[in-house]
Design a protein that fits this description.
The chain has 18 helices and 12 strands. It is an alpha/beta fold. The strands form 2 sheets. A 7-stranded parallel sheet has the order 3-2-1-4-5-6-7, sandwiched between helices. The chain has a 5-stranded parallel sheet with strand order 10-9-8-11-12, sandwiched between helices. InterPro entries: EryCIII-like_C, Glycosyltransferase_28, GlycoTrans_28_N, UDP_glucos_trans.
């Protein structure tokens, strides 16, 4: 159905609050359920949902995953229907605007303008893609980039929905949210500053409200804007929010409302038929366990400088290394270094002495599950939150922001992670608990028809 026609049809539906959450309509046969997952962003924003889609498919659901074209084959490889969402995150991160965003980091005042610009672009792109992707859905499962538009579409169309978050998203006294680092105000600030900011945004209209208000009008909903929609989601007990990280890493806060859960990681699918390259196997067998270094989908114009810094740190720390090129096209040279492309972390990380990474949610989870020490180098978003969490858990000797990285600092952290047995012992103990968790099963159960 064309998007415009689909939107007109939506306005004829009941526009009251979402119907009470009870999973899928009991009258729906399991094999007829259409589950639509909507996600976009970097690889780390997509592959956990592909793994979740595969589990839902195995449980008898009819699953579609809507995401950017770059990940269409990832979706099809797990046997799910692919639906298109606009955008090209790799191109966006590589643009001048995206570079400024990454240089700005998280929580810095200087980065606020770029964050707003990036948010505006996302809001302008996402609306029609979400509306089109939701066609025929019996339930919507929404990653953060699709959350505002998806919540509104679910509300207008009377479709049950659920937020699926990869990092803590609901204010709590236990810790500051990744986007609101207000620890200097203690537990009161942790819980209340985000809520006050949301309340203020309901009264002060900004340019970012425009695209969402237009989307609300298109659906026949009252035009309220970003802050009002977010406040509604947070208090709406008929709107479940499931967090896909380990409760052994971040326990569920007691002050979260009912329906907000920490269920465990949604692991990426293991590539069908994948085998490690002979060159990589030979390298791993030819000496002591190496250190992994990779920054996932983070990209930058300083690749050469970063490669130089990493190479100098490896020489100083006197360790072997597997360098994953990723979107930054990072490389390394020498008898003690090998550069690889995509290699499943599930296979690679248990063979490492330590993992050096950007602190993304997925890479953090994979390192914890592998039971190896970590050296995080956060760039933006929730990465600093996970970096600090790894230190608090005792599996990391410390972290350093990418923008201030030096060879001496990186070498020191690597050396401590590899030589101090306490980090590996603590990592192994946590890994035992993480391996018993099944976050995907929790979501599968949540969308089961209630008969």
């Amino acid at each position: 159905m064309p998007v415009a026609r689909f939107a007109r049809a939506a306005t004829t539906r009941a526009l009251a609050a979402p119907r009470p959450w009870s999973g899928i309509d009991p009258a729906k046969a399991q094999e007829d359920m259409k589950v639509v997952i909507i996600t976009s962003g970097s690889r780390g924003d997509v592959v956990p949902y592909a793994g979740l889609g595969a589990r839902l498919k195995a449980a008898g659901r009819d699953v579609a995953i809507a995401t950017q074209e770059a990940f269409a084959e990832t979706v099809r490889d797990v046997g799910c229907e692919y639906r298109w969402i606009p955008g090209d995150t790799r191109a966006l991160l590589g643009s001048e605007e995206g570079q400024q965003w990454q240089r700005g980091g998280t929580g810095r005042f200087a980065a606020m303008r770029t964050n707003i610009q990036m948010g505006m672009r996302l809001l302008q792109e996402m609306g029609e893609g979400v509306l089109s992707a939701a066609h025929g859905a019996d339930i919507l499962l929404l990653q953060r980039t699709a959350l505002w538009h998806g919540y509104l579409a679910a509300k207008a169309l009377g479709i049950p929905g659920m937020a699926l978050e990869l990092f803590p998203s609901v204010p709590t006294a236990d810790f500051p949210l990744p986007s609101f680092d207000v620890r200097f105000l203690g537990r009161w600030g942790n819980r209340n500053i985000p809520r006050l900011a949301i309340a203020a945004s309901r009264r002060i209209r900004t340019k970012m409200d425009g695209p969402l208000r237009e989307f609300q009008r298109k659906l026949g909903l009252p035009a309220s804007g970003l802050g009002a929609v977010r406040a509604e989601m947070l208090r709406d007990e008929n709107w479940p929010i499931h967090h896909g990280f380990s409760p052994s890493v971040v326990p569920r806060p007691a002050d979260w409302r009912p329906g907000v859960e920490v269920v465990g990681n949604w692991w990426p699918p293991y590539p069908r038929g994948w085998k490690p390259a002979a060159e990589l196997v030979d390298f791993l067998e030819s000496g002591p366990a190496p250190v992994f270094i990779g920054f996932g989908s983070m990209t930058g114009s300083t690749g050469e400088r970063l490669a130089g810094t990493v190479s100098a740190a490896l020489r100083e720390a006197k360790v072997r290394a597997v360098i994953q090129s990723g979107w930054s096209t990072l490389t390394g040279a020498g008898d003690d270094v090998i550069t690889v492309g995509d290699v499943p972390h599930e296979w690679l990380f248990p063979r490492m002495a330590a993992v050096v990474h950007h602190g993304g949610a997925g890479t953090t989870g994979a390192g914890v599950r592998a039971g190896v020490p970590a050296v995080p180098m956060p760039i933006l978003g929730d990465q600093q939150f996970w970096s600090e969490r790894l230190v608090k858990l005792g599996v990391s000797p410390g972290w350093t922001p990418m923008r201030t990285l030096s060879p001496d600092r990186l070498a020191d952290l690597i050396r401590r992670a590899v030589t101090d047995r306490s980090y590996r012992e603590r990592a192994a103990a946590i890994a035992e608990r993480v391996r018993t968790e099944d976050g995907a099963a929790r979501v599968v159960e949540a969308v089961r028809p209630q008969r």
